[in-house]
Amino acid sequence: MEIPFNQPHQHGPELDYIRDAIQRAHLCGDGYYTKKCHELLAERTGAGKVLLVHSGTAALEMAALLIDCRPGDEIIMPSYTFVSTANAFVLRGGVPVFVDIRPDTQNIDETLIEAAITDRTRAICVVHYAGVACEMDAIMEIAERHRLYVIEDAAQGVGSCYRGRWLGSIGHLGCYSFHETKNVISGEGGALLVNDPSLMERAEIIREKGTNRARFFRGQVDKYTWVDVGSSYLPGEMTAAYLYAQLEHGQEINGERLKWWNMYHRALAPLEEQGVLRRPCIPEHCTHNAHMYYVL
Ligand SMILES: Cc1ncc(COP(=O)(O)O)c(C=O)c1O
Q: Is 190 in the pocket of ligand 1 (CB under 6 A)?
């Protein structure tokens, strides 16, 4: 029997919300459902600002623009990750500096980060593999000491926590993915969490093709204009409508996955005892979203 790699989850109200989005006759970005997603995600994560984007990759690309990644800037990241973590910075001329991973969580080994820092280092981009947190206290402390940005690639970590804090809300910037293979989905989709207040206004501008359109809609300027570099990172309203239905039930979706995750974990325990394989390790101070079950 073939086991599907992924089965997209449908919770129920997705079609109703999409129909409603169509009836509202505002199908481009930043309409009713995008705002609902922003509010819900900001409330749950505690992030200062949440901006929906069209993919996790787009969130990472926005992060690279926001930290002003320039040719030759070095970005520290784990040697084990998805291509977008590196590509986002390489597109700006940045140089990925790969640091080995921990044998337990498969996340960047925080004890090796400091040795990789040079005078060209601009940021540390951590990846919370399988939705299990990196050692954020140690990483934030290193970053503060060396005045580096921390970007959390939390593409796989929506709904997971580190010492009670949502992944994506701890570094200066956090990147979520809502790709079909994730827990909470919208086909393609993502979000940028802006936790550093000094980056918030520019994040809005970069997301809106380098214009101050968001300020215009808030009535802060009487016309909007081109003020910076940027691109079109907004998802349309039908995507946001689907996502909102999923986000509303995010906790239940993760809870259901956790049941299956625990089932595999229990069933594979004897094989680990026999030394045949190793099961995932969840540190005590982390709660996870059961994004994937892997074995070594
Ligand atoms: C660690 C990691 N970073 C980035 C991404 C990119 O997200 P998206 O597919 O939404 O562009 C993914 C998606 O698989 C991922 O797993």
A: yes
Q: Which of 177, 184, 186, 188 to mutate to test ligand 1, by most ligand atoms within 8 A of the CB atom? A: 177
Contact 85 CB / ligand 1 (< 6 Å) = yes
Give yes or no for a contact between 37 and 52, defined as CB atoms under 8 angstroms apart: yes
How far CA 105 is from CA of 46, 158, 278, 279, 295, in Å, comes to: 25, 17, 11, 10, 11
pLDDT, one tens digit per residue, over 64-87 is 999 999 999 999 999 999 999 999
**Which contiguous run of DSSP H or E holds residue 214?**
helix 213-217
Burial degree of 212 (CB within 10 A; 0-12, 13-18, 19+): buried
Strand-pair partners of 177: 190
Q: Bridge-partner residues for 149, per DSSP?
A: 123
Side-chain-side CA neighbours of residue 37 (13 Å): 35
Specify the ligand 1 atom closest to the Cα of 84.
4
Question: What residue spans define the domains of the chain?
Answer: 14-249
In the block, residue with structure tokens 């300027």: 221
Share of the chain above pLDDT 70, in %: 100
Dist CA 282 CA 140 (whole Å): 20
Question: Closest ligand 1 atom to the C-alpha of 179?
Answer: 10
Q: What is the pLDDT of residues 145-162, one digit of tens each?
A: 999 999 999 999 999 999
How much helix, strand and coil, in percent to the nearest 5, is found in the chain? 40, 15, 45
Domain boundaries 14-249, CATH class: alpha beta
Instruction: Give tens-digit pLDDT for 269-286.
Output: 999 999 999 999 999 999
- Sheet of strand 286-287: strand arrangement: 165-166, 161-162, 286-287
Give the C-alpha separation, 291 to 264, whole Å.
13
Given this model, what pLDDT does residue 142 score? 98
Contacts of 204 (CB under 8 A, 6+ apart): 49, 51, 212, 214, 215
DSSP designation for 183 = S
